[in-house]
Amino acid sequence: MHSVPVILTLTVLTVLLTSTVQVIGWRPYPSKTNGSDQIFDASKKYEGSSNLVRLRYHMGPVLTNNITVHPIWYGTWQKSQKKIIREFINSISAVGSKHPSVSGWWKTVQLYTDQTGSNISATVRLGEEKNDRFYSHGKSLTRLSIQSVIKSAVASRSRPLPVNPKGGLYLLLTSDDVYVQDFCGQVCGFHYFTFPSIVGFTLPYAWVGNSAKFCPGVCAYPFAVPAFIPGIKPVKSPNGDVGVDGMISVIAHEIAELATNPLVNAWYAGADPVAPVEIADLCEGIYGTGGGGSYTGQMLNDDRGATYNVNGIRRRYLIQWLWNHVVSYCTGPNKLD
Ligand SMILES: *[C@@H]1O[C@H](CO)[C@@H](O)[C@H](O)[C@H]1NC(C)=O
Ligand SMILES: *[C@@H]1O[C@H](CO)[C@@H](O)[C@H](O)[C@H]1NC(C)=O
Ligand SMILES: *[C@@H]1O[C@H](CO)[C@@H](O)[C@H](O)[C@H]1NC(C)=O
């Protein structure tokens, strides 16, 4: 889940030792302190570190079967936008992308295992999709109404999404005119599982919103920077769509956590399963070597001056790093040794 960072001098260490609040990674969520405080007090956190981050396995299942991602396009989506996102999902287990690659990034997820020692699947494919272009549940969704949207997609009379509790992930993507509970102030996306009482099945799902109209400075950072942070310039997005390029890192975050903690009883840190700190939360806002606090770390630039850190099949993307529990730090394929 995306957490609610209190951007003070907290580091992973102090947070995990002193509180159960999920306060780890960095996104410029609006906070009570003002901009200059945030920049200068932001912890100069490294790419993780520490034996004190106790990410633990809680014995629940992880996604060891081939993973199939089913996007639900809620609201108004351009073809070009869908393409950027589809190609990202198709890049996760693509072979032959140039280093550093999206598939290299997924290797960190594959390090996680279940009770039997089975690793998370190397295979992530794009499955059947569903359009919900007439906003079946309105333009303002709650956490519960999101489950009703998923219910509509799997129970639809025409071309329902298949119900696949073994490796299916349901990815609800909302267009830039849809507000979702806690969007922008606290979250840019989250994952959970559906309730049988609402959907009829227990299915792992995530929601990620296009923040372009509501809060690109928060959820599409660093392609946009919020007004309350003076003096930082946004970087150019790799696919020319600030909202969608910003969604990619959030989608990556949620898919990584869905794979390692699909029913919220597998891999997480912290004592509280209601607010687990998961493998992407630990590295939120870190995109390269030296990242931490409000610094993204070293990223790459293409010949048009756009910023990215991984290569996909045909495109480039900027996605956050993930926690490697074997070595106890955040890592990504673009790390400099
Ligand atoms: C920002 O924070 C500083 C120090 O805490 C304070 O003196 C200043 O008034 C604040 N500025 C605004 C605009 O809130
Ligand atoms: C899983 O994916 C691999 C590689 O794409 C494929 O060879 C295999 O047949 C798939 N297994 C199932 C059960 O679909
Ligand atoms: C499976 O997980 C173990 C333990 O983290 C790791 O050593 C191994 O390299 C992983 N296998 C793959 C294919 O990633």
Automatic annotation (TrEMBL):
Signal peptide extent: 1-25
Main location: secreted
Keywords: Apoplast, Secreted, Signal
Subcellular localization, as worded in the UniProt entry: Secreted, Extracellular space, Apoplast
Keyword Lipid metabolism recorded: no
Transmembrane segments: none
One GO CC annotation: apoplast
Record-linked InterPro entries: EXORDIUM-like
Family according to the record: Belongs to the EXORDIUM family.
Protein name as catalogued: Protein EXORDIUM-like 3
Lineage: Eukaryota, Viridiplantae, Streptophyta, Embryophyta, Tracheophyta
